[in-house]
Amino acid sequence: MADRKKALLGMSPGELKVLATRLGMPAFTGGQIALWLYKGHVTSIDDMSNISKANRERLAEEYEVGCMPPADSMRSADGTVKYLFPTCGDKYVETVYIPDNDRATLCVSSQVGCKMNCLFCQTGKQGFEGNLSAADILNQIYSLPERDKLTNIVFMGQGEPMDNIDNVMKATEVLTADYGYAWSPKRITVSSVGVKNKLKRFLDESDCHVAISMHSPLHEQRAMLMPAERGMPLADIIALMHNYDFSHQRRLSFEYIVFDGVNDSPVHAREIVKLLGGLECRVNLIRFHKIPGVDLHGADDKKMTALRDYLTRHGVFTTIRASRGQDIYAACGLLSTAKKEQELR
Ligand SMILES: C[S@@+](CC[C@H](N)C(=O)[O-])C[C@H]1O[C@@H](n2cnc3c(N)ncnc32)[C@H](O)[C@@H]1O
Ligand code: SF4
């Protein structure tokens, strides 16, 4: 790890021009490097063939592209594929490719583990092992075998994106900028439990869709399920959301895992309607994917449907999200590289 070179992936043309100048090259070489990275998808500096050999060698003394192929993969019966990607910090993260008719969504990770410690989440059980660099986040796309089939990206893998906002913003910039992948921000959704100040910064500086993990409309219960509620209560998140326009391109959704006998009562349903009144948004009900050692159970289909219908009838558009990749532990909240990290220690 000590002698690992710095990654070019994640740098903007402006940053690459500064770098080129520092290394004694013409500034335009920075622009050429950006083209090789984001349009050419080169895997090695040596492949940047319109840059002189001397300059490529100079660059390669300190830098590398920063891409690494997946170290492992598992395929679900439903076509979902879970990849294990190495990171620049010599750790591993999981990424899930989810094909669905004419859509193909990639669920990317933003951290190794997570420090938010939500009661129901296997990534939370792993604890926090480090932030991903912008290169690590982008590599999950850059080195994905199905890269060219992707239609959507969701930051719903390991980690809390707001807790690594600088690198998440750098990565979404490359994905949406003309110099980069030139994707519309409406193909990207960033999911968060809500982190004070960071969420506001994200809303101010990004046009990507936002998903908020709600899971309970009641303060004490949400805090029991999700300690992050103590740092940024749901009421504050919703108050903040009222300052932004979600009626056009940008979409706001709330994720709600339905736990049997915990958050599926009429009181909860009424509270959700009250809280979300006047806000342009939708609710996605999620099935609980059981994790070991946690005494929570998913509500059955009948209860999920009843909650969906109640919310929709009361003006909150609600859908039930299909679970994908459960057989390979790739479904929401099941990602963990704890075992892999232990093996490496
Ligand atoms: C793993 S998180 C990553 C993004 C961000 N940290 C968050 O919590 O929104 C993505 C989604 O998975 C949900 N999730 C976590 N554990 C789950 C589980 N065991 N079953 C179903 N969904 C789960 C989260 O609540 C969140 O809505
Ligand atoms: S649900 Fe999200 S915030 Fe909570 S522990 Fe899991 S990854 Fe972290």
Account of the 3D structure:
With 345 residues, this protein is of the alpha/beta class. The chain folds into 2 domains: 6-64, DNA polymerase, domain 1; 72-344, Aldolase class I (TIM Barrel), CATH 3.20.20. The chain contains 13 helices and 14 strands. The chain has helices at residues 13-22, 28-38, 53-62, 122-126, 134-142, 165-176, 198-205, 219-225, 228-231, 234-241, 266-276, 301-313, 338-344; strands at 6-7, 63-64, 72-75, 81-86, 92-100, 103-107, 111-113, 128-131, 152-155, 188-192, 209-213, 252-258, 282-287, 317-320. 45% of the residues are buried. The mean pLDDT is 95. Bound molecules: S-adenosylmethionine and iron/sulfur cluster. S-adenosylmethionine binds next to strand 10 and strand 12. The site of S-adenosylmethionine has 17 residues, from strand 10 and strand 12. Its main location: cytoplasm.
